[in-house]
Amino acid sequence: MTLARHTGAAVLVAAVLLVLTVRLGPFRDYQIAELAAYVTAVAGLTYLIGLSGQISIGHGAFMAIGAYAAALLLLHLHWPLEAVFAASALAGAAAGGIIGVAAARLRGPYLAGATLMLAVALPSLADKYAGVLGGDQGLSVSISTPAFLGVSFPPTRWLAWITCAAALITLVLLANLGRSRIGRSWRALRDNEIAASLSGLNVARMQILAFVISSACAGLGGALFAVVTDIVSPGAFTLALSISLLTAAILGGLGSLAGAVWGSLVLVFVPTYVQDVATSHGLSSAASSNVPIAAYGVVLILVMLAFPSGIQGGLRRLLGPVAPAASAPFNLLRRHSPASEHQEEGTQ
Amino acid sequence: MKRTHRANLALVAGTAVVAMVVAACGSSGTSTPSSSPSAAASSSSAALTASAPGITATTITIGSHQPLTGVAAPGYDEIAPSSNAYFQYVNAHGGIYGRKIVYKYLNDQYNPAITSSVVHQLVLQDNVYAIFNGLGTPTHLAVAPFLNAQKVPDVFVASGCECWNSPAKWPYTYGWQLDYIREGKILGQYIEQHFKGKKIGYFYQDDEFGMDGIKGLGYEIPKSQVVAKESYNPANINVGPQVAALKAAGAQVVISFSVPAFTALLQLTSLKLKFAPQLAVSDVGSDPITLGGLLASFGKSKKLSALTTGIITDGYLPSLGSSNSWITLFKKIHAQYIPKLPFDGNVAYGLAAGYTFVQAMFKAGRNPTRQDLLNAINGGLPQGPSVAPYAYSATDHNGITGAYIAIIKNGVLVQKGPVLVTDTTATGAITPYTTPQPPAPASGIPAP
What we know:
The complex is a heterodimer of chains A (348) and B (448). Chain A contains 18 helices and 2 strands. Chain A has 348 residues and is an all-alpha fold. Chain A has one domain (2-347). Chain B contains 14 helices and 13 strands. Chain B has helices spanning 2-26, 73-76, 79-92, 112-125, 137-141, 144-149, 180-194, 208-220, 240-248, 260-272, 288-298, 325-337, 345-364, 370-378; strands at 59-66, 100-107, 130-132, 154-157, 173-175, 200-205, 226-232, 253-257, 278-281, 312-315, 402-409, 412-421, 431-432. Classes of the chains: A mainly alpha (348), B alpha/beta (448).
């Protein structure tokens, strides 16, 4: 039932996207493709933090793993694109599984620190194994538009189609997962680990599973990112990327897939839009190039002040009935251990 | 509970749809003048037409990607404003056959992913005629295949990677500055001749920039003399381990292929580790004014800017301290259009690259197609602000072919010996170039 509903919604969105990609110009198609890549990665992260209650400041690293996997498979084995995307998700999942085992033992700031280290350290592997991974200049990724679409078919429209298809499939699968027994278990252990394990949930296993799924999404997002930007290089997977994924998840509203879309929209469109406005208002290049960074900060502060539970949380509050779980993830971020959480609730 | 789920679901779908519509509304509705395969040959009296994408009867729009913020920004962020200053100068003096140049350069933060994004914007949305002077090796490598696939002229890349010279693979891409292989050869020969038997260490950026430089050095310096090769990644500002390794290997001369920020880090870290080798730095990382500023600000002491004195480097543009007619012209334009920027090597670089573009555009004709620009450059360009001639031909897309060795003294390059020219092969001779450099045109604008 749920599956059918989610699939229906996805088909509807796909139809709208199809019209948009045909009607809009090639650069908008490129931006939609960029957006789809971010949405895929942010959706996984928002589930990890918002549903399972674990944090990762290193999701850019999983994107890098997926992106390099995709680049290597395309360059050397010439796999078809679907297989490449699936393999990238698997590569991300495998890495997530390894990190997840460690993550299940860590809490709060320690987990944040461990994942942060991953984001900082991983890109330098590309320099260490420059022969295979191309060093600092990276590997170039090129995909061609299939022949049946004709020679004059805009390549960016094709990019938008494949990335949006991948993103929509990911969103449908995640939406179902969120409504399933697994999603409920995640919420249970997010809200209270001790209570969850008393109810018979295997906390560690569920936490590892959350990491695996979330990093599979990041891996796929990385592969999409690679085909969109034509290149995989360490310079693209900096700590700044990891932080901006986290920012997008929080801005959009933790735990919400719609929030992942909102957050990614801010990530993709605010910088270009603000820079265009700044330039067209005759600001000097030194000033206008710094304005997007400032604008990003302002958006962040405003959203956090006005909608502490993210854009999606704010919309829910404005438009409809209050969703009971909307603010739960944020309480979680403030707490560091289940023990203190327990105390807080005890004193209330 | 059930209702909330359905509401959530509707919101997910709704958000995605609204999001896309928002994106759609943001799209600028610029109509793009399609390129007409008009007759390229045009007489001087022909009316100005929209002969190619980015060209209208009154304007030529070109674009670029530049590091305006981030690790590569110090110094390099002056280049595009300087090119733009030259274009404004040309615009104020009649333009190119009456058309004004509109130069739109976007910030890529030296991040290849952002480079890809901004160059897609310039080509697909802003519909530029050409990408001019896109800065950086790893960054520009991300977009060269796209530009060639789109058949957009990719002229005078601001990087000395020899990779831009691939006319068969990338017919639309052209280098400009002295490539790092030639530069490595010229620097290497000088070190080999003047520091015979000394222990030499390399410090280089871990990409084509550094590798090409090392390759050129290797053509001149015997392997046995090289005691350490240490690379750095521009994303990691800690160069302590590399400097310690150079010191441990007993390097007496360190040759550095680094961007200015990392030349400064190399010097400050050496100072901290009490390591004082003779330093030789490639042109891109040795501009004394940029470097002095960085040393002063990183080291929090004005006195540290004196550390640049004694560095061996090379120059392919006339020394800023000389009375060369090009420097006089550059100072005039600098004072008029960009007086707030320091008059340094980056400014001269931007102005000189801008001049070369104007040279090529005049040669491309009154109503040029994109192919006309390629033809103009493939036919060779006359020597301009650079001390050595260009290599441009249909089979060679390298730019400047030589440089002079210089030693930095009190913030300016002091030329040592003649201008040297060479090629990119292992065995190609390095020969003095004795033809005097043609002076700058009195008008400051190349003759059509």
